[in-house]
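Sample entry (88 residues):
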Amino acid sequence: VSFNTLLQLDGELELLMHRPVHLSVLNTDQIVFVKEVIVNGRRLYCNDLMYCNEFEMYGLAAYARLNEDRKTVLESYRMEPSEEGSDG
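Predicted structure, serialized as tokens:
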């Protein structure tokens, strides 16, 4: 789906629904964004419920793996002394 097509559909849906709409091709987006859409978004249409549910399952699993992979990095970052307030 082209960017122009998504933009056009965004506008048409906003007019119909009287609220902001953001359309995206999730299988091409960053995993953190995909997780946010799955958790906080609203599915407007699904042609194949099994596929949609499977996509959500794999998306959330990929996000969980990402968090596991970056866990040690985040923990070591939190353990570094803060430069704020140092007498330097």
